Every structure is written in C-alpha cells, then in structure tokens.
Structures
1.
Amino acid sequence: MNIADIRTDYKLMTLSESRVAGNPFEQFTQWWQQAIHSQIDEVNAMTLATVTKDGKPDARIVLLKDFSEKGFVFFTNYLSKKGKELAENDSAYLVFFWKELQRQVRISGPVKKISPEDSDRYFYSRPAGSRLGAWSSPQSEKIASRAILEENEKTYLEKFGEEIPRPEHWGGYAVMPESIEFWQGRSNRLHDRLLYSLQEDNKWKIERLAP
Ligand SMILES: Cc1cc2nc3c(=O)[nH]c(=O)nc-3n(C[C@H](O)[C@H](O)[C@H](O)COP(=O)(O)O)c2cc1C
C-alpha cells in the first residue's frame, strides 16, 4: 500500500451556521454527547500543544476529565516537561480527532492550574495503583531503567500503605478557551469549518473558515 494513496472522502454529516449553537460550549456539549453515543475509543484523548519560552512547540496526548465554561480540564505532573512549559508560557492548544464522526475540534487559550480542592477530588477518585504512580514516576525525567519505577512504587507503597495522598506536584490544569473551531469533513476536501472567537465584550463571534 502506497502511503500517498491513503485517503478518505468524508460524507457523513454537514455543519452550518444556521444550525450550530450560539455558544461554543453548547456546541461542544452536543458533539461530545454524539461522540459518547458513537462509542468512540478513547473519546476523551486529546492532543495538548504547548510552547517553550523560546517559541518551540511541543505536543502530546492527555485525557479530558471535565469541561465547562470555566475550562477544559486535564491532569498531569506539574513538574513534567509540559508543566514546565506551561509555567513559562501559559498558551495552549487542544485538538480532538473523532474519526468515526469525521470531526475535529481545536481549542486555544491560556491555561491555569485548577484549585487544590478540585485536584484532590479527582485524585482521590482514582484507583490506588494510579495514585501510587503519581508518586513513583518523575514524569519526563531521564531514568536509567524501568527498575527505578518499580523500586519507587515499592518504596511509596511501603510508605503510604492504602492511604496515598495527592503529591503537591500532581494536579489539574484548565484550558480557558479564547477560540474553538469545529471541523466537519465533507466531500472533495470542501470541509465545513466554523470558528468561535471570544470578543472583548465576552460574546462569541462565529466565522466560517475555508477548508
Ligand atoms: C491515550 C493517552 C492518554 C494519556 N493521558 C495522559 C494524561 O491524562 N496526563 C498525562 O500527564 N499524560 C498522559 N499521557 C502521556 C502523555 O502523552 C505524555 O507522555 C506525558 O504526559 C509526558 O509528557 P511531557 O513530557 O510532554 O510532559 C497519555 C498518553 C496517551 C497515549
């Protein structure tokens, strides 16, 4: 199979100004519910793009754990590479690709840490093994071998037993959208793209972009 010959013509659905919600959170909620009903694998997996202070981009997948007008929330290690990048430059982009629905959503805006109480609420809902993992992995650091992780896990298990507290360096971030773009694949590469941008008066403007 020649890579250059791999392509899909998108014919499932359309997206029009006259039928979308005036508020992008309502629109996202509709698409989210459709994605959930479509039983998409890892529906909450999204690409998180960050930028270093020298303007170098970086990106990786994280899991969406909550969304509201207050932001799109994910959890991670605040001392990880992404955590350091966000401390230097709070601009971020999130990208979802729900291929079964031929849809992409792009969300941009500044990121802030959520409250320790909200991080606690999620942390303590996680299985014990995941809570231990937050202690055992110095995320993004170079380690000599996998054995180090397993030793750390043993050490922290002995230290905490069943009562594993949330490390201060682990918690949530919220991306607070300034723009959200909804992309619906269409035939012959003439896709639908609607961009919601937050205006100074806090209202959302909707514009169509060429595909
Ligand atoms: C499906 C999937 C889900 C992931 N979810 C998370 C997540 O929610 N939080 C997280 O910190 N890393 C998550 N990761 C791991 C990240 O992609 C990444 O390897 C890690 O966060 C380190 O990134 P960094 O070195 O850029 O900070 C996930 C990876 C995959 C493939």
Note: Residues 146-160 form the longest helix (15 residues).
2.
Amino acid sequence: MTIGIGLLGLGTVGAGVAGILATPSGRHPLVGELALRRVAVRDLARPRPVELAAELLTTDPEAVVDDPAVDIVVEVMGGLEPARSLILRAIAAGKPVVTANKAVIARYGEEIAAAAAAQGVYVLIEAAVGGGIPIIEPLKQSLGANRIQRVSGIINGTTNYILSRMAAEGAAYADVLADAQRLGYAEADPAADVQGGDAADKIAILASLAYGGNVPRAAIPTEGIDRLDARDVAYAAQLGYVVKLLAVAQAMPGSPAVPSAQAEQLLDVRVHPTLLPKAHPLAGVNGVNNAILVEGDPVGQVMFYGPGAGAGPTASAVVADILNIAGIRQATGNGTNAPLDPLLAAGSWRPCRLVDSAVTSHRNYVRLRTSDRAGVIGAIGTCFGEAGVSIQSIVQFETQSAGDAEIVVITHEVCEANFRQALAAIEALADVQAVAACLRTL
Ligand SMILES: NC(=O)c1ccc[n+]([C@@H]2O[C@H](COP(=O)([O-])OP(=O)(O)OC[C@H]3O[C@@H](n4cnc5c(N)ncnc54)[C@H](OP(=O)(O)O)[C@@H]3O)[C@@H](O)[C@H]2O)c1
C-alpha cells in the first residue's frame, strides 16, 4: 500500500528527506512504500540538490495539505506562520504530521497536541531537537518509567562550534563567529543561535516531554554566548573547566513525588553558558555535535550524542517519524482509529510552573576587576562570607595594566539570592572596579 507524502519545504531538511525517499534501496522496506506527491516551495525557479518532476512543486502550501493523494504532511519550512496554521489544517483534515519545527512546537505544542488528540492523529517531532539524535522517542517512551531528575544538553551546534574553537585557539568570540559564518556553520543572522533562543525552544520541548506538561517558553531564563569573553574561556581552562552553552531542565524539590494530571510540577529550566568540569560527560562534546544527558530514577545517567543538524541527520529523524506513522497505518488498515500516542496527548499533561531563579542554587564563576592591593582578596572573601556564600577557590590572574588585578572566584553551591547579595556588596567595595563576568558552574 503506497503512502503519499506531502512536503512543506524543500530547503536543507526537505531536500534531505526527498533524497532518502528517492533512494529506498538498502533502507527499511517501508521507505519503498512512500511516494512524494506534492512539495511546497517559495521559489519554483531555485535550483535544488534533488531532481524532482516539475509538476510536484507548488508555491501553494495549502494545496499540498489538501491534496487527497497526500496521506502524511511533513512540515520542514520553518518559521511560525504559516507553518503553525498548516500543521493545524493537516490535523483538522485527519492527516498525521511530521515536523522539524522547534520554534512552532515550543510555542504552540499544547495547542497542536490538543488538536491532534481531538482528531486522533499523530504529530511526531523527532527532528525538532538534536537533529539526527534520537531523543524525543526515548524521552516519550523508552524512559517513561523513570522519575526524570534532570535533562541537560548541548543542543545548539553553532554555539558549540564557536565555543570549541574559542577554547582550542584562544580566539575572540566575534572572530570565530565571523569565520563560522564564512564556513556556513552560522547563519547570516546568528541571533537565534548565539543569544540562546534556539536552545531555549529545544529545552522547552524536552522539558515538556520529560515532565509531562506544557513548559512556558517565554518564561525560560535565557543567556547566550554573545557576551562571552575569551579570557573567561581561558581562565576556566586553567581551573579545569570548559565553557559550554548548556540547556537544563530539572524538577525542583516540592514537586509531587507521584505526578498526577492535577498536581503542579515546579521546574527549573534555563539556558546559559556554563563551566563544566573537564571530566563531565558533556565536556568532551565538541564542534557542531550535540549531546543530551538524561538523569532519571532508576535508570541513572543516559547520554545521547551525535550530529545535531544538517540535511542528512535531520532528514534521518524526519523519515523515521514518517516510517512510524506508515507502520501504524499499515498495521491498522488505513490509519483511522490508530492508537493515539498516550504520552503526547495533551489531556494527560499537567501544569508546569518555572521556579523563581532567586530561590535556585548553583555554583558560580565570577571574574572581578580590582586594584592590585593587599587586602582586596580578604575584603571580597568577607562579602561572600557575610552573605552565606562559601568559596571553593579564589585565584588572582595577572593583567596587562599595572596596578590592576583580575580575581576569579568559584563558589560552592549557593542560593541565587545570597549570591546576588554578595555581589552587590562586592561591587560597592572601593577597590573593585567591576564584576566583569559571572557564569554558572556545574
Ligand atoms: N537545517 C537543519 O540542520 C535543521 C535541523 C533541525 C531542524 N531544522 C528545522 O527544520 C525546518 C527547516 O529548516 P531548513 O534548514 O531546511 O530551512 P530552509 O533551508 O530555509 O528551507 C525552508 C524551505 O521551506 C520553503 N518555504 C519557506 N516558507 C515557505 C512558504 N511560505 N511557502 C512555501 N514554501 C516555503 C523554502 O522555499 P524556497 O526553497 O523556495 O525558499 C525552503 O524550501 C526548520 O523548522 C528548522 O528549524 C533544521
């Protein structure tokens, strides 16, 4: 039984998907059952890396969704609109959807899941996080028995590429970014990557799946790498750490031990540059690779690692989702009354609330610019002590200008409110010129 595929988009990912569908030999036998029926693009004249019959292409994406020969709609056009409306249109027509669109799912996942549940159709999103790395299905299914304590990951390849080169070469952020743009590893407009928004979209999705509730995307505290100083990467290395843009979601104490649909789940979800000890499992993830570390009870630590983007890896995840749906359609006749994915059904989701960051606890790295005078380190230590912040290490680094010093402090795990109180007192010291950098530390 041939299954008709409608593609919304024939860019990097869409062309990768079309390439797999056109070359079924040696792949899962079901790939040979998939037939590309219609493809929406913006510009019919643009040269494509895959050869397709001209009559397949259209500039009308609604015509792809509505085409009776299209059984599964694959949304790989990106952006919020018209992608969201087209996904909802497909669902309303009873057509299952596969999408790689993290931006839409992070913002409208609850609306889309509710519409899919009402219609009894699948919406699968494996490619939305981690490119070719299987992480969505493992979180939804394979790890479903666990209490998830924490999901943390390097889930943006562009920033990981930049940070890896900053660490290896001691290069400045702006220089590496310019080079990454020249080499095609960073977009002409890199804002979504370097300011952390892309990673925030992805951790919102992972947190929603790990904790079974809708995580408010707009409330996720997000800090990118665009203000990161090469000196902090170098000092971190000297102290035994690497700097990574980490996305973290963890359950907070007070969250119900036995979750129910009604009980509110309190979460700490955030994105920021983070110092990782060199022995940490995520510390060795370099270049454009991604990795996600899931910590659960009783499974322990499970790490997923691989290529987080690119035509081939992302298309691999998209086609896997198509095959899942195709397999169910074949097993159930034509797909009507297919069993709904129970873990994505919005009806079983519970409310999630993000905790006020002032009550969270972390280790911190602080770089202070001070005058090079006896007693400064003592005064700084006193400020930390009076605020109840205990220090793991305090190191003075030489600077170019005589009479100045740079002091780096790494704290033990402390409540954010106490840490801020200590920083305010330190900033008021006459010998402290500036709190030059402040980073979280694992
Ligand atoms: N690239 C990756 O490595 C990667 C990895 C994971 C997830 N994703 C996600 O996958 C999605 C697609 O990414 P991509 O990199 O493949 O994007 P892309 O290269 O920019 O391709 C977008 C495609 O959609 C078409 N399109 C856009 N708006 C359209 C409209 N209104 N009507 C008709 N066609 C339209 C474009 O047509 P034209 O070609 O005619 O302009 C193009 O073919 C995004 O949601 C992205 O976040 C991408």
Note: The first strand starts at residue 3 and ends at 8.
